[in-house]
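User: Show me a protein chain along with its predicted structure.
Assistant: Here is one chain, sequence first, then structure tokens.
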Amino acid sequence: MRILLDEMLAPAIANQLRHHSFDAHAVTERPELVGAPDTTILEAAATEGRVLVTENIRDFVSLHSLWTANQRMHSGILLVSTRAFPYSSGRVGRLVRAIQDRAATPLDAGTIAFL
């Protein structure tokens, strides 16, 4: 699974995923994407065949609906709830494990799912 982590997710997550042989990038590691609008982030993920992982549930669910209505395809969106993954010292490790587990059942293109 190729992954793009949205800006609010720590680049340490991408780094740990790379140590587990994932092709993972964080928006914060890519100057051309830092501060970019959500449409640009999803466009980049789709162009590169990356699943977008984000906490920005409201905006990306709306964007997904818009893309679906316009028959546009993305590589999938994984939504991260701060209730399921609260900010704490073990959060990065829990997210890495959840993404690894989710990768065992690939996300279909054009779909969204919660971690």
